[in-house]
Amino acid sequence: MTLYEDFLSRLNAENICTLDTVEEIAKIDEPTKRLELKTAVTNVAKKLGMKRDFETIYKAGIREIARRNRGVVGGRKTKFTNQPVQLMCGEWECDDSGVRAAVFNKSNDDYEYQYACTIPIMPVELLSNANTRTERVRIAYAIGGEWRYITVDRLTIASSTRIVELSNNGIEVTSENARLLVRFMADMIAGNDLPRLDAVSHVGWHEDEFVPYTDSVRFDGEHENRSLFDSINVAGSRAKWVECMNSLIDKSKLFRLTMAASFASPLISRVHALPFVWHLWGGTGSGKTVATMCAMSIWGNPRLGAMTRTMNMTQNSMMATAAFLRDLPFAGDELQIIKEKFGSYDKLIMAVTEGVDRGRMSYNKNEPMKTWSCSFLFTGEDPVTHFSSGGGVINRVIEAEASEKLVADGNGTVEFINANHGLVGEEYINALKSLGEDVKEMYSRYYASVLQCLPDTTDKKAQTAALMLTADLIASTYIFDREPMSLNDIIPLLKTADEVSISERAHTHIMDVIAMNANRFYGTDNDEHNNGEIWGKVTSQEVIINKNVLCRLLCESGF
Question: H/E element holding 253?
């Protein structure tokens, strides 16, 4: 009892039965030591003939301390090592041994410490999701001295049956301490003015901020797209990356256009344009995939399965990925993988460039509509459009044949960008922010110039060209320090209104078919040699064709 001799020596008939004495005993955290001191004080009271009085005041004092501590906001503060913030914790004692509270035990009329969690843990932020209109909590917890973070629904930490799910993340919670941890979380949120931040389940623009290049908006897609989100990272040397890309741009116009298509993606929603497809096609070994990976290295890790996706995926998966990327480009390699599934690419092109997923309903409510405003960078062995594609499809695509090698050293370039990537994405976005409304003016000037240079093209084609030209101008000025590309670099890839028109293309095709089957028409030199169908009649001024035959030929050709 040497530890408490000074305290015991000061006890007398006047002060032993007071609340101050009870509080002195209650300060002892360790239950065994606290009981030891209480027993010693009880023996002193017995010698003074006041044992019963002391036991009565002790019971009343303990109840008063328990009542006073519960719900107290001030007083104690968290004392975790390297804690991200310091919070007021009221009745809770928070240190490196965990989180505990003194709980009054009616069976022995005394305190006993019970742990809400045996590791440091605390809520640090409240996130209001702009997409789902729900609130979530960002929790910090330490394992082995290393702080980690997880974002969960408010419902998860409000229910003792659901909070045990946090054990999957290494948090020490079981059905035994679940109720206490729920109470601790509620007390910490109620007793502290935690930061309340906007959150989104996608990357890209949120008002004037761009996720993940901002601290004022949090990403809130922990489960669905965490691996893709983590791919938007930074590695290597900016100077070396810029030098490498500049050398590749110098050697290939198509490479530069691929980079421009990637840079154009964050512009689309800012100028109220439509999503578009940039498609590189050609034989194997032309460097299509490497060029696309270089374009994605602007934003993060470009390897296949990370920022560059393989096309071995369903249309629903593709739409979900596009909705997550929102304003960052979607890169899909080897489009022919899904050709058998879709027959033609028309349906896919229309779906991705609409920018809106189809509506869905789950259980008893409509799911939030998924939208996106990104460019799509595809590669493949064949053109993505054909002579019978609808005008809407051709309008939304700019495609180019990689007839010459885009990247000379493909393996070396891939190895380089795997080690050097994500170095200029934030810089480019900051340039867009600093330009403000000037971006719209730059886009409008290019749009007007394209229509003036090629007046018989369509508005949508001019939009896409203007987006890529504007993006290249900004990137050339703020990142590459070079002259921007000219209209002549992209004009040859734009189709005219007649080429886009499905009526014109159908007419041209049918005229070719008629020429190839002249012997099926009366009035030609070869009509007497026809042993099959007669399709119609040819005169000096016109061709008359059976309507059923015409419809059949158009259908067989995909019109």
Answer: helix 253-264
pLDDT averaged over every residue in the chain: 85
Nearest to 401 by CA among 377, 375, 383, 376: 383
Q: Report pTM.
A: 0.73
| Helical residues (DSSP H) of 454-527, grouped into ranges | 459-475, 497-500, 502-516
Distance CA 445, CA 217 (A): 33
Q: Are strands 121-129 and 135-143 parallel, antiparallel or unpaired?
A: antiparallel
Mean pLDDT within 254-266: 97
Q: Say how far apart CA 387 and CA 397 lie, in whole Å.
A: 14
Q: Per DSSP, which regions of 184-326 are E strands?
A: 196-200, 204-206, 209-211, 217-219, 277-281, 308-310
Give the CA distances from residue 48 to residues 18, 52, 500, in Å, rounded to whole numbers and listed in that order.
Answer: 14, 11, 106
CA dihedral 205, 267, 322, 295 (to 10 degrees): -120
Integer Cα distance of 30 and 533 in angstroms: 103
Helix axes 459-475, 438-453, angle to 10 degrees: 130
Give the C-alpha separation, 540 to 536, whole Å: 14
The angle formed by the CA atoms of residues 477, 480 and 484, to the nearest 5 degrees, is 55
Instruction: Provide the H-helix boundaries in 91-223.
Output: 154-158, 178-191
Q: Which residue has the higher pLDDT, 400 or 364?
A: 400
| Residue 387, pLDDT score | 57
**How far is residue 445 from each of residues 278, 436, 487, measured CA to CA in Å?**
22, 16, 12
pLDDT, tens digit, 9 for 90 and up, residues 8-43:
888 888 888 888 888 888 777 666 777 788 888 888
Q: What is the number of residues in the chain?
A: 559
Type of residue numbered 409:
D
Q: Which of 30, 181, 17, 179 is nearest to 102 (CA)?
A: 30
Separation CA 378–CA 433 (nearest Å): 28
Q: What is the mean pLDDT of residues 113-121?
A: 91
- Return the amino acid letter for 118: T
pLDDT digits (tens, 9 = 90+) for 51-78: 888 888 888 887 777 666 554 444 578 9
Q: Yes or no: say if 54 and 40 are a contact pair by the CB < 8 Å rule.
A: no
Residue 504 neighbours by CB under 8 Å, 6+ apart: 498
Check residue 285 and give its pLDDT.
Answer: 83
Q: From the centroid of its chain, how far is CA 196?
A: 20
What are the tens digits of pLDDT across the range 488-537? 999 988 866 555 456 676 777 777 877 788 778 877 665 566 667 888 88
The structure tokens listed for 250 are 């110098």
